[in-house]
């Protein structure tokens, strides 16, 4: 078994046994294809996204965990957030240049829940329309500019 598969098995076990609050991995999606997961996420209590339900898709390349997974929001309910584009792409540094093999699906989910929880105003990124028209399908191919650490 490749190191990626061993690592994903271990992470799936951890996510199943002790998931972060409001986060649940869709085990059926993992059993079909181990390198693509669907994770259900619920907005935290007391936040703008309280009780809202979202889905994340994780795609793991062969170099995982040394290379970050591709993570996007799926479906009709993509959060309206200054760092989330209407196509589901997420502008979050740990998904690209700040990735570390010490991070996991669990820590990525916690970071996304935290990002949503700290939001004070539901709005799309200012460049949403142009980005969605011109971006690659893979958000990891985007050269993100992290200019707003306040949201």
Automatic annotation (TrEMBL):
<protein>
    <recommendedName>
        <fullName>N-terminal E2 ubiquitin-conjugating enzyme</fullName>
        <ecNumber>2.3.2.23</ecNumber>
        <ecNumber>2.3.2.25</ecNumber>
    </recommendedName>
</protein>
<dbReference type="InterPro" id="IPR050113">
    <property type="entry name" value="Ub_conjugating_enzyme"/>
</dbReference>
<dbReference type="InterPro" id="IPR000608">
    <property type="entry name" value="UBC"/>
</dbReference>
<keyword id="KW-0833">Ubl conjugation pathway</keyword>
<feature type="domain" description="UBC core">
    <location>
        <begin position="3"/>
        <end position="151"/>
    </location>
</feature>
<dbReference type="InterPro" id="IPR016135">
    <property type="entry name" value="UBQ-conjugating_enzyme/RWD"/>
</dbReference>
<dbReference type="Pfam" id="PF00179">
    <property type="entry name" value="UQ_con"/>
</dbReference>
<dbReference type="GO" id="GO:0061631">
    <property type="term" value="F:ubiquitin conjugating enzyme activity"/>
</dbReference>
<keyword id="KW-0808">Transferase</keyword>
<dbReference type="GO" id="GO:0016567">
    <property type="term" value="P:protein ubiquitination"/>
</dbReference>
């Amino acid at each position: 078994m490749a190191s990626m598969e061993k690592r994903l098995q271990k992470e799936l076990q951890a996510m199943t046994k002790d998931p972060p609050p409001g986060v649940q991995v869709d085990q059926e999606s993992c059993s079909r294809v181990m390198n693509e997961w669907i994770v259900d996420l619920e907005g935290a209590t007391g936040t703008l996204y309280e009780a809202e339900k979202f889905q994340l898709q994780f795609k793991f390349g062969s170099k995982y965990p040394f290379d970050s997974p591709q993570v996007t929001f799926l479906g009709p309910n993509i959060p309206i957030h200054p760092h989330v584009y209407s196509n589901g792409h997420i502008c979050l540094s740990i998904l690209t240049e700040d990735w570390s093999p010490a991070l996991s699906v669990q820590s990525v989910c916690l970071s996304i829940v935290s990002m949503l929880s700290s939001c004070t105003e539901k709005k799309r990124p200012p460049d949403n329309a142009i980005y969605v028209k011109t971006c690659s399908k893979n958000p990891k191919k985007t050269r993100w500019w992290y200019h707003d650490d306040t949201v």
